[in-house]
Batch of 2 targets.
Target 1
Amino acid sequence: MVDVAVIGVGQTRYGTFPEKDMKELFVEAFTEALADVEKGIDPKGIQEAFIGTLETGGNQLGNVAALMTEQAHVPYIPASRVENACCSSGFAFRDAFMAIKTGMYDIVMAGGVEKMNDLPRERNRYWLGVSGDVEWERLAGTNFPGIYAMIALRHMYQYGTTKEQITGVAVKNHRNAVKNPKAQLRFEITLERAMNSPVLAYPLTLFDACPTTDGAAVAILCRGERVEDFTDTPIYVAGSGAATDYLALHDRKEITHLKAATIAAQNAYEQAGLEPQDIDVAEVHDCFTIAEILAYESLGFAKEGEGGRLVTEGLTEIGGRIPVNPSGGLKAKGHPIGATGVGQVYEIVHQLRGDVKERERRVKNAEIGLTHNVGGSGGTAVVHILKR
Amino acid sequence: MVDVAVIGVGQTRYGTFPEKDMKELFVEAFTEALADVEKGIDPKGIQEAFIGTLETGGNQLGNVAALMTEQAHVPYIPASRVENACCSSGFAFRDAFMAIKTGMYDIVMAGGVEKMNDLPRERNRYWLGVSGDVEWERLAGTNFPGIYAMIALRHMYQYGTTKEQITGVAVKNHRNAVKNPKAQLRFEITLERAMNSPVLAYPLTLFDACPTTDGAAVAILCRGERVEDFTDTPIYVAGSGAATDYLALHDRKEITHLKAATIAAQNAYEQAGLEPQDIDVAEVHDCFTIAEILAYESLGFAKEGEGGRLVTEGLTEIGGRIPVNPSGGLKAKGHPIGATGVGQVYEIVHQLRGDVKERERRVKNAEIGLTHNVGGSGGTAVVHILKR
């Protein structure tokens, strides 16, 4: 079997950038990824590209993968746009991994980009809404806060999870984001303030939701046999798992966990020959705070129904047993839809190399990391395990 | 290296189906593909899906890959939407091929689907327009007929290609489509009628353009070692080549050929260890008639500038030296954007098996076939070589 490693990563700051278009954001991340390759790399050596984006409509640009590679001055290579809602670039990363696994290519890039803040709010809501079930949920008036609120309520009812635990995720992730110069929401919040923020859909309040974000991320992957040409600190992709689920909640047997994410995690662990307790650090898909608690359970960091306890006990803080979202997560680092999956890889690669610039944000001696990227309300999911 | 074969294909009729939605079209093609697997197949054995669609906007559906697999009753498997404009499912087929090449999966499906005819014409024009260059071409008022007309004019000027040769492609492809019950435009046209049809953008007249089409196609791919479980007539994927190009014509050094398609073809031939003269039958991307002439040249069926002669000499007719678009092509079989690439595979698989139902449409003793699928005005392209 061919080994696959990440040899370079780049990511823009996440935020609101009215002065930058989609192409500029992509090139910024790509340029950083090239510079991040320790021994240097000729961009002409990149043989294929997979680029995740929801293309949130306002850009009016199509054939986006070719457009991005053109703008990045790597024309002519095969490039595809991958769209799986909020886990578009998680799947793009998986495609890049598989392209090298074929033995046909040595160097492949995975990217993600989203420009959300040039759309009026109403339009953004429309575009995001289509990533869940449209016919039975969105057209009936439901939106993502409403869907995740139903999941949260059921979790509270069934397992005794508390609003304090759910919103505690936001407090932790904001605290981490303060130390991350690339994060969008760099301010601490108290549990009290978050609990008392305006209700979006009970039990979710304002600070339970991620922001609307512009951003891009790029990872350069390399066949194992060639990594020494590029870096002495390759980060290997040990496992890639992905799955789908019924889009509408009413079609699922249970709504207290996201089955697609659970299957994806199982497949990734199996491929890597690893267990949940082997993971030293994880970036998970906390589009809403409750989603991080679901992630704990999907990933086996906690038993079904017990995810809330990890928050109460501080186990997922930096310095805790299994630090989750040291970057600030989608919640506070930001969630540029199509870029999020590769953005998670960016964070984990730096954590595993031990070269996160901000010392207080480093997870010490991390050797094995995980990314968990979910599309819509769990219709799609992809999990990767990375290894030093 | 792992061998990869197509073991089953399905395709809806192409046309205008106001009574069917995107999901029904996809399931119809999927159901036929399952039934087409000679020794039968349990759909639960399908391990991953790649589905191409431009999602022409009117559907208001997102996370489409998960939605299609859900509807097809193959839930939970990894599924991704691939979008590369008009070659979306050509790239989805390539992804499925690569997924098996990794050695990680035995059975993977590639699909494509498009529902274009429930959009008002104006909206369709908008959605299609974004697949070319938006900033410099579309927003300046250019559309695809205009872009291909510029290419055609230059080809005429530079090489002496005639309007009769260009429009002759339409006459041939309509003639083939008459014999194809799954084609959209099943009527013959005379060269005189086509030449005198209304001008779209000189030199292209109405019959030089493909129609607006609803349709879907699915192919089931299998690891070589397991094909005997499913069929005695596997069709192997001998080569897969893909490439991109600058989106806007003014950025390209030459506009008389589509460089992405030429590179893709070279890569596919190289991988297959084959030459243009080895190809017995081809389905090529004739969104406009001039595009088929460009395809002849990209694929090495004719020298640069000499593609028009193949039409004059009838070499690409069924029964000619190298029959092209025996299905009727995009021009007359129809062009349901996202479905076109896998729809081409559907035709070639039947031609190579020798089981095309309509005897007069069969290319006799075809052993090696080729598909050529282009995105936008050549921003992306993908070529596959299939072998009996």
Target 2
Amino acid sequence: MQGLHLTADLRGVDAALALMTDPDRLAQACRDAVRTSGLSGVAELMHRFGPADGQSGITGVVLLAESHLAVHTWPELGSVTLDVYVCNYGGDNSRKARQLLDTLITAFGPTEVSRQHLLRG
Amino acid sequence: MQGLHLTADLRGVDAALALMTDPDRLAQACRDAVRTSGLSGVAELMHRFGPADGQSGITGVVLLAESHLAVHTWPELGSVTLDVYVCNYGGDNSRKARQLLDTLITAFGPTEVSRQHLLRG
């Protein structure tokens, strides 16, 4: 179960962006990005930390056949954290993982991005 | 949204352990470990990759008020990967994150553990 875990911590994201506070919009963006990257979503869960007032942050995950995508939004800080973890059991999914992360970073349009990665397993 | 992301990749886990293949048992263990550590679960999702034959692996997440816990089991390899990510917005949750990870490692009883961590945000 060797794999690659990519993280990106974003700053300077527009808090008025629907992706920051609307779980349905965030879920759709995640689903689309997973599909475009060639990875396989198998289940998803989104949780909004407060009322639907356009100000509450969201934690969301998409479980992948290849491991998982996790997103946390902090509209009050203009921040987002992204995790893409793929195992490479049955094939090297590293390129797909990078594409998924890049697509979501672009969707949030941050002014700053801090990237890290771990080789796992 | 500065935080601490801990990972542990386990080998030599007994494939016959219920936690490896039973989503309900895994969910209960995760809930108990989260509560004992003093962190706050807000939602959870478990997905089994095949029939309930005691051989299919599971991907599970517990969304936390403080970020997330993720678990992937590979009974066919005797392997498990664990992620505990906590933000330290409103307080330092690092000690609680380590306790949560340690509790789950103990529950799986691996012969080998590879730990890594990232400072995020």
